[in-house]
């Protein structure tokens, strides 16, 4: 990460995003759905029906993936990723994207064990880790995703630190 994005700034950003999420989560079910969008729109004088709200929700989710969107709710993690991309620190997002792209050696949209192995042997990137430490890191990485970590999972992982 760049020097002007410190841990304190990141923690403040995460808290602000979570606070905004829970303001939008009007029914307090820890997700934002079409009813929450409708209630928010109504509070600012916009008449939004459920189908329009669902379309907005799926559009927001669709910006995060190339996969078809079937979800009808936005989770706090998805919301944080969305805010990071559109409202949050663009510098932080750019740095996370560059880091992810550097680790995703085959550019398939996931950081996999194969990517990490290539990085380890091509560049001695993990030369301070012994084999046991490296395997533990890979195991933790693979626990987060199904055979690898996509960008959203990577952002979540980095923002937890």
Which helices and strands occur, and which strands form pairs?
Blueprint: H1 7-24, H2 34-43, H3 50-62, H4 76-86, H5 90-103, H6 113-123, H7 131-144, H8 151-160
Helix pairs in contact: 1-4, 2-3
Notable traits:
63% helix, disordered N terminus, elongated, 161 residues, mainly alpha, Recoverin, domain 1, 8 helices
Indicate how many domains the architecture comprises: 2
Q: Provide the CATH architecture of the largest domain.
A: Orthogonal Bundle
Annotation, overall tally of beta strands: 0
- Cα separation of the termini: 12 Å
CATH-assigned fold name of the largest domain: Recoverin, domain 1
Succession of helices and strands: HHHHHHHH
- Note the beta-strand portion: under 5%
Percent of residues in helical segments? Answer: 55-70%
**CATH homology group of the largest domain:** EF-hand
- The overall average pLDDT, rounded, is 77
Give the structural class.
mainly alpha
> Segments where pLDDT lies below 50 for 5+ residues?
1-5
Rg, Cα atoms, Å: 18 Å
CATH class of the largest domain: Mainly Alpha
Biggest β-sheet strands, sense, barrel:
none
The number of helical elements comes to 8
Shape: elongated
């Amino acid at each position: 990460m760049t020097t002007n994005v410190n841990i304190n700034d990141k923690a403040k950003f995460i808290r602000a995003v979570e606070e905004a999420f829970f303001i939008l989560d009007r029914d307090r079910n820890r997700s934002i759905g079409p009813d929450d969008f409708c209630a928010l729109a109504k509070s600012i004088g916009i008449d939004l029906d459920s189908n329009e709200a669902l379309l907005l929700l799926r559009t927001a989710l669709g910006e995060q993936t190339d996969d078809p969107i079937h979800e009808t709710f936005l989770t706090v993690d998805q919301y944080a990723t969305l805010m990071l991309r559109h409202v949050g620190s663009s510098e932080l997002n750019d740095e996370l994207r560059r880091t992810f792209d550097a680790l995703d050696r085959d550019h398939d949209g996931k950081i996999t064990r194969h990517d990490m192995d290539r990085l380890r042997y091509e560049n001695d990137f993990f030369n301070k880790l012994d084999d046991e430490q490296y395997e533990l890191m890979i195991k933790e990485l693979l626990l987060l995703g199904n055979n690898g970590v996509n960008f959203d999972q990577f952002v979540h992982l980095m923002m937890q630190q």
